Amino acid sequence: MKKRFLSIMMCAVMTTALVTGCGNSSGGSTSNGGSSGGSTSSGGTSSGGSDTSGGGSSGDTIKIGFAQVGHESDWRTASTKSCQDVFSAENGYDLQFVDCDNDSAAQIEAIRGFIQQSVDYIIVDPIVSKGWDTVLTECEDANIPVIVIDRTIEDSDKYVSWVGSNFKTEGLAAGEWLKAYAEKKGIKEINALVIEGSTGASATLGRTDGFKEIADANGWKIVDSQSGDFTEAGGQEVMESYIKSYEGKFNVVICQNDNEAFGAMTAMKNAGIEYGVGKDVILVSFDACTAGLEKVMSGDINADFECNPLAAPDVEKVIKQLENGETPEKEVYMTEHWYVNEDILSSITVNGEEQPLTVVTQDIVDAQY
Amino acid sequence: MNKVKKITGMALFLPVFCMLLVMLVNVIYDAANGNFAFNFFTISVRNGILYGRLIDILNRGSEIAILAIGMTLVVSSSAGTDISVGSVMSLSASFCCMLLAGYGVASASTLAMPLFLGVLGGILMGCVCGAFNGFLVAYLNVQPMVATLILFSAARAIGLLLCNNVIVYVRNDSFGFFGSFLGPVPTPIVIAALCILVISLLLRYTALGLYIQSVGINKKASRIAGLNSEKIIFLCYIVCGLCAGIAGIVASSRITSADSNNIGLNFELDAILAVALGGNSLGGGKFRLAGSIIGAYTIQAITTTLYALGVSTEQAPVYKAIVVIIIVTIQAPPFKAFMKRMSDKRQLSKGGAAV
């Protein structure tokens, strides 16, 4: 009897916990939306006005379904927020947002849900690259254009356009910058250690390939290349091991995201190795989140190559083109910035194209996601 | 011969032997590469702090070692594993960082409340989770894996809620203390040593160790003998949660942030593996705490060795699996029996020749 009572009590407690938990989360997101809405309305009232007039001509609001990967990093949060800001009610959109929590089956279900709600457009950041043909065919049958962002889909081409970063270009840019920087500083020999991202991730593959291409072309030595799993703890542990294995045999460390770079910095500091601008070891990082740019400004990181999470403006352009009956490009690459600390180079040539380098200032840090 | 037998017959011989075997690989590798053969074992003082691969193993293995303490008790008393420890680590870390930074703040360089309050909060959160698991297992008789599955999936998510879905940075040196250095020694090593010391003293100088084993061997018989089996199991889970809380604080202090998605990821499996590598049965009952601790450092030794050998990260899990299989096989009862039969046979033939 006592046991039964206890189990009933447990159930009650758990149910309340569940309910309050849900209440909290929805409360949080609405307050989020409120604050972001406030900032957009104060910043861009005029653009909002012009958008509503545009929307008025086409009839009503545009309904968009967005199946996001999850919320695993600052980068992802910025990507979500960018979509929520751009496709807001003030701008004449009705955004259905689903956080799939890194579950690819849930993502496909979310898209089926969007089809049932007959949204006008579907945006998806595919968790996995394969297994999309069936559900994309369903979208096609329902006459809903699908726009893919960030990650890629390999086994189907039934989407209108893909908007994202070219990771290989980021890798190439890092290599080209290092080449130009070494020439300018008179550094003859380059021995690089690479801390890779998660094994098999497209960002890891692209950045590794791009950098390696330049390294091979210039006869640089890549001393070692191991994965730090895109985390600060991983970067710290790999760097600790590198220092023990290759002490004094390297002068460049390439970290494939900012978190890994923070970890590598701690490891080098503990071992008494000088890194950063004007020091023994050149530190290069990718992603360029706010915290990363702060480190570039303070001179701890020499250069940081951006991976732009703000896909929404480009997606909006694609949607505008579709609304006007134009055919958008199949692959849309977002503009990305290459951030450096020193003002000694103004531009680098990547893929035969001249691209500017941006010197980090406080304003840039504040404006970053 | 007798001396050898005495050493090999010691309870912890096999776990220690396996750990040394793993480290031996490095000696061979260094020697083959023309380096100083004992490079791996060299410890020096650099920049005012201890420096060397062995220190790395002790330092990086701290979290697993701390978790292994709690896991050993849980396995012994309830004949099941607590698979929520990794997630609970993440939750404690998130809660601690949330307290220190203030709710909704993504990056703070000044603490919102005194350091010890935040850390205490994080550790208490671990205890609460442990108590929840313990309640389900001890009083409601839910199977341990099912009971802990709840927090395994929920704790990390609650942590994310507390942190407002972002990585909360507490860029304050005083918080970084638990993951950096106490004088020349890495603080995690000191914390792990303290935890091990306290628990082993508790087990040695009170009857608690005996109680836990007897409950694990036969719960009903223990109750009839006058032990409060439920209470003991409940207590073990609280200790396990406490350990997870401490490990979470250490892990988050290392990176001075609450990376809810990655702190303690898959650590529950390593903690269970540590218990198994230490020669403890996962079926409950008798246990050797020292075995689990050695098991924990063996796992870290494997990881550090793979880094030192420069094994590519894609293939590392395969080597890790091979080593684990070998270690578990060496310690498996049928294998032990086989070895004993072989040595008996040898002994017999030798004896026969002498006579």
Written description of the protein model:
The complex is a heterodimer of chains A (about 375) and B (about 350). Chain A is an alpha/beta fold and about 375 residues long. Chain A has helices at about 1-45, 45-60, 75-85, 105-115, 135-140, 165-185, 200-220, 230-245, 260-270, 290-295, 310-325, 360-365; strands at about 60-70, 95-100, 120-125, 145-150, 160-165, 190-195, 220-225, 250-255, 280-285, 305, 330-335, 340, 345-350, 355-360. In chain A, the strands form two sheets. Chain A has an eight-stranded mixed sheet with strand order 7-6-8-9-10-12-14-13, with helices on both faces. In chain A, helix 10 links the parallel strand 9 and strand 10 (about 305). In chain A, helix 6 (about 165-185) packs parallel to helix 7 (about 200-220) and helix 8 packs across helix 9. Chain A starts with a helix and ends with a helix. Residues about 20-60 of chain A have low confidence and may be disordered. In chain B, strands 3-4-7 form a three-stranded mixed sheet. Chain B has a two-stranded antiparallel ribbon with strand order 1-2. Chain B has a two-stranded antiparallel ribbon with strand order 5-6. The interface of A and B includes residues 240 and 245 of A.
